[in-house]
Design goal:
The chain is mainly beta. Helices cover about 5% and strands about 35% of the residues. It has a four-stranded antiparallel beta sheet with strand order 3-4-5-6, with no helix packed on it. The protein has a four-stranded antiparallel beta sheet with strand order 7-8-9-10, with no helix packed on it. It has a four-stranded antiparallel beta sheet with strand order 11-12-13-14. The radius of gyration is 18 Å and the shape is elongated.
Length: about 200
């Protein structure tokens, strides 16, 4: 385990996991527990020593990455998104968002939205709504070989832009998730703005 100084970029070795875990995903949860997924197993990691403690066997293959959205610990395995029970280690499939194949990184932004970074033929950043299993392409990235994604949780908090191009009460990213047009305030032409339909009428 390595701790990286956010200002200087200096990396300091914290300690060895003490296990041959291979490729890993890491995420802190809301109680400051550091979770690690590796080789179909879930571990708790002591952030002061780097020592990993086995927590649970996961019934599927490799979890590429982990993220905490403020309420739930999520794991991404290929194109499949799972909620992870932090008491039992049980995986609950939330579904298969429409995402490309390829190595991934998973993180959550300041609004609790899940973001996925894919290293594929067209590397890109996607936003995922685990409640609906919808995903939306946000931007292409030059990070063709990136294998991890993390967002700074300290001010200023980087986040997806909350631009609302058509002024209907839904950000452009939320419009992409809802399947509405970010350039038209009333995408279906029924006289109600998209924001009202999504937030009030579901």
């Amino acid at each position: 385990l390595v701790r990286v100084d956010r200002v200087t970029g200096t990396a300091t070795v914290v300690g060895d996991f003490g296990l041959p875990v291979g490729s890993v995903g890491l995420a802190f949860d809301g109680t400051d527990v550091l979770w690690m997924a590796g080789r179909s197993q879930l571990f708790r990691v002591d952030a002061e020593t780097g020592r990993a403690t086995y927590f649970a066997q996961m019934p599927i293959g490799l979890i590429d990455s982990l993220a905490w959205d403020g309420a739930t610990l999520y794991g991404l395995s290929g194109k499949n998104l799972f909620a992870i029970d932090r008491v039992t280690g049980e995986l609950v499939a939330t579904g298969t968002p429409s995402l490309p194949s390829g190595r991934t990184g998973l993180a959550s932004d300041a609004h609790g939205r899940l973001l996925a970074l894919f290293r594929a033929s067209l590397p890109g950043l996607y936003v995922i709504d685990p409640a609906t299993n919808r995903s939306a392409f946000v931007a292409q990235t030059s990070a063709r070989f990136a294998e991890a994604l993390a967002l700074d949780s300290f001010p200023p908090v980087p986040s997806l832009p909350d631009t609302d191009s058509d002024g209907d009460g839904l950000s452009d990213v939320d419009e992409a998730l809802a399947g509405t047009n970010p350039q038209v305030a009333d995408s279906d032409g029924d006289g109600l703005p998209d924001g009202l339909e999504v937030h009030i009428f579901g």
